[in-house]
């Protein structure tokens, strides 16, 4: 797959009088579906354009600098999950997965593992689509703002770990740092901000800005991923402990350092 580029910040050099129009890239080789989706998106004041394969996707990312992707998983000659996997190596652009041909539960879990921001099974309502686009864009902007605030922060120590808030990594002394995904970072931030307190799944969903109706078990998946990175034995966790009926508890003491 051609090299993918994240959106450049050079377009922010001048400040327009009104908010910039969101650019939506539809990755779908079903021309009829793409035409309907793009028409609806444009009717709601956003720009929309299409890519039908990985080459067109890479070109559109470079030339169009979209704000969000709508990605169909079942392209005729390529797997949408492979495109998402390659994209996430290069960019954190928000992605909404669209699919009606696979098992929904598998799509949700794999899509989340690969960094999807939302999931919309086909057939879907067009008004719901635009609502989800706007919701994902809001969460992405909020996440960027939080990351900017975190850039002025330092490190958090717990157990034998050091959590670098700016680099979004965790590591032990003398060992290579381990990168965290956006979801893992947000989840660990929620835990270190409230050590020793039971945090419900609903609280953690709000903290990580996930839709309960989209990724119903997504918090459990994120917890499992985080345990695999932090726990000596993820099957017998001691740092992130399940408290039946209450949620999850982050057990170690936390020390904030600049």
Overview of this structure, please?
- Residues 23-137 form the Response regulatory domain.
- It is found in: Cytoplasm.
- This protein is 39% helix and 20% strand.
- It has helices at 31-43, 54-63, 80-88, 104-114, 126-150, 182-192, 201-208, 218-230; strands spanning 23-27, 47-51, 68-72, 95-99, 118-121, 155-158, 161-164, 169-171, 178-179, 198-199, 240-243, 247-250, 254-257.
- The strands form three sheets. A five-stranded parallel sheet has the order 2-1-3-4-5, with helices on both faces. It has a five-stranded antiparallel sheet with strand order 9-8-7-6-13, with no helix packed on it.
- The longest helix has 25 residues, at 126-150.
- It starts with 22 loop residues before the first strand and ends with a strand.
Question: Helices, strands, pairings?
Answer:
Layout: E1 23-27, H1 31-43, E2 47-51, H2 54-63, E3 68-72, H3 80-88, E4 95-99, H4 104-114, E5 118-121, H5 126-150, E6 155-158, E7 161-164, E8 169-171, E9 178-179, H6 182-192, E10 198-199, H7 201-208, H8 218-230, E11 240-243, E12 247-250, E13 254-257
Parallel strand pairs: 1-2, 1-3, 3-4, 4-5
Antiparallel strand pairs: 6-7, 6-13, 7-8, 8-9, 10-12, 11-12
InterPro entries: CheY-like_superfamily, OmpR/PhoB-type_DNA-bd, Sig_transdc_resp-reg_C-effctor, Sig_transdc_resp-reg_receiver, WalR-like, WH-like_DNA-bd_sf
Modified residues (4-aspartylphosphate): 72
DNA-binding region: 153-252
